[in-house]
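Today's session is about reading a structure prediction critically. Students often jump straight to the picture, but the first step is always the sequence itself: look for stretches that repeat, for charged clusters, for runs of hydrophobic residues. Only then move on to the predicted structure, which in these notes is written as discrete structure tokens rather than atom positions. Here is the chain we will use throughout the hour.
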Amino acid sequence: MERAPNIAVYPPAVSVAAPLLAVALEWAVPLGLLPAAGSPAILLPGIAVLGGAGLLAWSGVRAFQAAETNVDPRRPALALVRGGPFRVSRNPMYLGMVLFQIGLALTFSLDWALPGALGVWAFLHFGVVLREEAYLTSRFGQAYRDYLAKTRRWL
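Below is the predicted structure for this chain, in token form.
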């Protein structure tokens, strides 16, 4: 059994790098797809999505803390967390990171953050989630397989 998940990327780094890349691309190659920044048509939904993303991430961290397990995915899992937002999604913190990109796109009319959200999802899915699932299956056995059967990976 592995001592910790063998993740390929550190999730917070992906979540920070993606909007920085989106801003650089917006400056270099503006797409002009979204309405102007500040438009109520996208500003209010953007703020709502950002709020939902933050709530998901925060509640996921709180659930890990309540279970006294490591939040950092590079560290060993000490407990199988199934409460809080983990009742609905196996990856609420990562889902929050994807939604954060969409919220940024809408709030700041940042066109490149929309494909960036897809990129964040892909990096997290293939570089982290699938690897964590293999690790957690090895670590927690049938209890984790039961959780897999009852709870969706993303939504």
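Discussion point for the tutorial: The two ends are 29 Å apart (CA to CA).
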